[in-house]
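Fig. S4 source data, part A: sequence.
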Amino acid sequence: MNKKGYCLLTGPTGVGKSSVMSCLATKISCKLYSDPYVNNPFIHDEYLKNNRCFQSQVFFFKEFLKIHKEINIEMESNFIFQERSIYESVNIFCRNLFLENKFNQDELTVMFELLSCVESYIKRPQKIIYLNASSDIIMNRIMKRGRTFECNISESFVKRQIQLYEDWIDCITKQWKCNIIRINTNSQTIESISEMVLGYLF
């Protein structure tokens, strides 16, 4: 496959992005960039102890910025498929922490100002695949995958994140010039979702 471009795979925590990424890795030749949560030294504190949230999100911002810098270069000669982006790091996760009273207004403002400062240096995706599902389906998937730092996630957290994603997708649909495809994953297998994604991409 000799294609170039940049596609973003997005959607709430637990909707199936990582599984779809793993499946696609066996089917297509492209540059895959996964959510950098595994390297975050603050993430257990953020999820389990409700502290160090600001440090955790600054870390994510730094990691996403490194990824986006590489994407800027690689998309000139490769097809790029990215799971989650720096935009969601701020617009979804930082905003959610503010709504949970784990971020104060100053911290939220700093994160949005950081995004504003770097946005002109970041290339936006040409296509966005938005995976969504109902809150009960997502809760079940989160419990099944068994990540320790997610064990205290509540359905209210999931519902709020779903709404934040819907609001963000509606916003960029109006503002960005890119193709946004929505896929409801409630009754879909990972294999069938992956095949649908491939169909939309190529």
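Fig. S4 source data, part B ends here. The two ends are 10 Å apart (CA to CA).
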